[in-house]
Amino acid sequence: MSRRVLALVAVLALALAILTGLAVKQGVLGSQKAQTAAVGGPFQLVDQTGRSVDEDVLKGKWSAVFFGFTHCPDICPTTLFELGEVEKQLGAKANDFQAVFISVDPERDTPAQVAAYVRNDAFPKRLIGLTGTLAQTDRAAKAYHVYYQKVGEGDDYTVNHASYTYLMSPKGRFVCVLAYELTPEQVTAKIEAAMKAGPDATSC
Question: Considering the entire predicted model, what is its pTM?
Answer without folding.
Answer: 0.81
